[in-house]
Design brief:
Rossmann fold, alpha/beta, four-stranded antiparallel β-sheet, 10 strands
């Protein structure tokens, strides 16, 4: 069974005055549990609409959506919220962290607002999520004391804290420099190796290369859907960059001694 099954999905936005925007045009997409998928496309191609559809944040004008075998189209807003809380973690380009609140408290928040079930020890779950993303020593830091990459790791931990089976990431490296972007992609690759389905929206080809499958959208249509044959390893890229820095540093030391 596919984790995500979109069948002939069409999304039309009524802008008023007989103006309609066709964001998705008969999209068919199946994603299996444990895949790492990158969704690409130019601005206006429909990739964000597709992400919102998968994340149960928007509903199709026509077509059918099944999530883990559940027919999503007929669910009410409370049932949709329940699915989002239990199955899906969201990571966005903007970190959306609460200032003057520690990383631990930021990660803990979704558990405190989870009305679908009583969480016995939310702090313990938040600590575990932060450890998973490599922030064991930064839990008590507020956002303004964290780097951009560390802040994005906090948002990933916040997405993980409800123990979802799917993570949806919308341009998660858009505000980060190249090295920090690779660090974040390393976290996603590790989570995917643990069995979490990762769906990533990006406009950066070098970021998409860390996924295992690429889907290209244009004008609301899928024009390309194929596996990535040579998946880049973020860990290897980081090690290569560190090695390059070490060599450069040794060279600078030698120059100083001459």
């Amino acid at each position: 069974m596919h984790t995500i099954d979109l069948q002939n999905i069409t999304k039309v936005y009524d802008m008023g005055g007989d103006v309609e925007v066709h964001a998705l045009r008969g999209v068919n997409l199946q994603i299996k549990k444990g895949e790492f998928v990158a969704i690409m496309g130019a601005s206006g191609s429909g990739k964000s609409t597709l992400m919102n559809m998968i994340g149960c944040l928007d509903s199709p004008t026509r077509g059918d959506y099944y999530l883990d075998g559940v027919y999503v189209n007929t669910l009410d807003k409370h049932e949709l919220a329940d699915i989002r809380n239990k199955k899906i973690g969201f990571v966005f380009q903007g970190f959306n962290l609460i200032p003057r609140t520690t990383a631990l408290e930021n990660v803990e928040l979704p558990l405190l607002y989870n009305r679908t079930e009583r969480i016995k020890d939310p702090k313990k779950l938040a600590v575990e999520a932060l450890i998973r993303v490599g922030l064991k020593d930064r839990m008590d830091h507020e956002p303004n004391r964290l780097s951009g990459g560390q802040q994005q790791r906090v948002t990933i931990a916040r997405a993980l804290v409800n123990q979802p089976s799917i993570i949806l990431a919308d341009e998660p490296t858009g505000n980060l420099d190249s090295v920090t972007s690779i660090e974040v992609m390393s976290v996603f690759q590790e989570l995917n190796q643990e069995g979490i389905t990762i769906i990533l929206v990006t406009h950066e080809h070098d970021i998409a290369d860390y996924a295992k499958r690429i889907i290209m959208l244009r004008d609301g249509h899928i024009i390309k859907d194929e596996p990535i044959t040579n998946v880049r390893s973020a860990k290897d890229d980081l090690a290569a960059l560190q090695n390059e820095r070490n060599i450069r540093g040794l060279g600078e030391k030698e120059e100083m001694t001459l």
